[in-house]
Amino acid sequence: MNDKISQQIEDLRAELHQHNHNYYIEDHPTISDFDFDVKLKELQELEKSYPEFYDANSPTLRVGGEITKNFPTIQHQFRMYSLDNSYDFDDLEDWEKRIIKTIAEPVEFVAELKYDGASISIFYENGKLKQAVTRGDGFQGDEITANVKTISDIPLTLSGNFPTQFFMRGEIYLARKNFNKINKRREEEGLDLFMNPRNTASGSLKMQDSAEVRKRGLSAVLYQYISTEIPAKTHWELLQNARKWGFKVSDQAKLCNSLDEVKSFISYWDEHRHELPFEIDGIVLKVNSIKQQAQLGYTAKSPRWAMAYKFKAEKVETELLSVTYQVGRTGAITPVANLKPVLLAGTIVKRASLHNEDIIKKLGLHEHDFVFVEKGGEIIPKIVGINEEKRNIANKEIQYPTNCPECGTELIRLDDQAIHFCPNDLHCPPQVVGRMIHYVSRKALNIEGLGAETIEQLYREKLVENPADFYALTKEQILPLERMAEKSAQNIIDGVENSKQIPFEKVLFGIGIKHVGETVAKKLAKNYDSIDDLKNATAEDLIQIEDIGEKIADSIVKFFNDSENMLMIERLKSYGVQLVKGDSVTETLSNILEDKTFLFTGKLSLFTREAAEEMVEKHGGKNISAVSKNLNYLVVGEKAGSKLKKAQTIGTIEILDEQQFLNLITE
Ligand code: AMP
Ligand code: ZN
């Protein structure tokens, strides 16, 4: 029976690996998405029922869900070198001359695209993906295997005649389309936008939840085989072999017999790079013969047999039409240059970011200046210079405004930052809207159906001004909005209703107290049972809580001193929003610690602070945040400091080490 099940599981895995390969690597699916999902579900069910047949490379792992808290540091068996850079054909000719000095035979080159992403080293053993490690500093990197396994372009099992042990290196990148999709979504959720696909790709690889990595839609290309055992004479052959074993290898790579061929490859891609669905920042050239590579060797930081050719950022000249000042959802002001539309790097550019006042001053920007605009890795182009010869002397220098363009309030500029802010957070329109968008966002009250656009419309129609207003909305008020139908209106009403079940800590995060992020909100909810308790806390009380400093404490006190905020809180309360901690869901194991209060200090080694606090609660005790007469037990780890001293002076507090604490609850 078990043999039969095991066979069935193996067959399904093999079949699904093949379909994955057909779809992602060959670009030639032979099964419908639906049928694929049916088979995948079938496999998932079987694996759940028969965990004894677990396989670290099952296709079901593609969906992710594994959580990595800390990525272990791994030493690279083969160092991951940098590449030398060249910027023009003269540099390349010099490079070829240096090569010819060492090598007295003809030299072939492989020209490849220089993918702009994050490099990765993946170890395969017996045809199975074993370990994936980031480049790090080239000597050691972070192990991110679970996250890499979710990337469809990367094979989990190989086929054909592969060596038993080797590393494949390549680049993990984010296609432009997926990058834009992520940013669109972030914009809807009121989150900061990502700067460029490269940073987003490397950031995604370090997310703790691999299911989230999967959602980012990363791609990969493999471009280097590394091992002590080299089954070919040239890099080109190795690439073709890798393709046969199931790796995604670049279709654009080209074998060149001369530097002239290399040059035309470079010129072609310099012109056509914007037609690719992903970003490249240059071309990589590699000496083809493995023997020649070995003869050339390495410098202290890079192989002598490889060279990067960096494309110049494209630059065009155009006229500045005006400068406008956008007020963000947090009140930060961003100056934007509106330009006479011009073609740059394959797209029409109409705007460029000016970042802040200092940058405008440094450029010395005048009205209607002719400016040079450049597009680097960032999506928003920037102004890199001014053609002063074309300046009309009658045109005045750009003056930074003193007041908010949205609400007229005088702007402030923080000393340590170059950015201006509008301090009118309660009434400046973009900030009012931003606060409501934050309130409904997924990590806060998670009100589905209420997106940024709908909130903006509701605000324009004067139906909502702060989060409490959502609870007074009626379907009749919502229905007349643009693009609203019976069903979507009902969704909003239901979403608002359901948000009354969202726990206190998320509400605390959602009401938008400055500097109170998710983690701080959690800490506050741990220490205060209700919003009323929190409201009465002084800054001194709050500072006692771990990770809460003066800045956060002051901001909390200020929030509750504002009568409008208090009115909103009272209204939220009246609608039934959770402003009191619900019955704690922690199961109770005993009541040995009933009526006893605990505080942990110093570096704990037997368990984490969170785990310790949970144990206290499970045994009926209570955690408090400061040393006072109300404290019964202080549990001290290594390097306990002021809290221990204070407890000793109070005298009535029992001081325990970690083991003594454990004895207390296991008695
Ligand atoms: P740099 O970071 O400028 O020193 O360039 C070296 C990096 O280029 C490597 O770490 C890789 O991440 C990246 N790269 C992109 N495409 C390729 C390629 N085809 N071959 C080798 N490296 C590449
Ligand atoms: Zn304002």
Q: Can you describe what's shown?
A:
The chain contains 24 helices and 22 strands. The strands form six sheets. It has a five-stranded mixed sheet. Strands 14-13-12-15-16 form a five-stranded antiparallel sheet, with no helix packed on it. A four-stranded antiparallel sheet has the order 5-4-7-8. The mean pLDDT is 92. It folds into five domains: 2-63, Helix Hairpins; 85-310, D-amino Acid Aminotransferase, Chain A, domain 1 (2-Layer Sandwich), CATH 3.30.470.30; 315-413, Nucleic acid-binding proteins (OB fold (Dihydrolipoamide Acetyltransferase, E2P), Beta Barrel); 429-574, DNA polymerase, domain 1, CATH 1.10.150.20; 597-666, BRCT domain (Rossmann fold). It has 667 residues and is an alpha+beta fold. Helix 1 runs antiparallel to helix 2, helix 12 (429-440) packs across helix 13 (452-460) and helix 16 (504-510) crosses helix 17 (518-527). Bound molecules: adenosine monophosphate (AMP) and zinc ion. The site of adenosine monophosphate has 11 residues, from strand 3.
Provide tags for this entry.
667 residues, alpha+beta, Helix Hairpins, D-amino Acid Aminotransferase, Chain A, domain 1, 22 strands, binds adenosine monophosphate
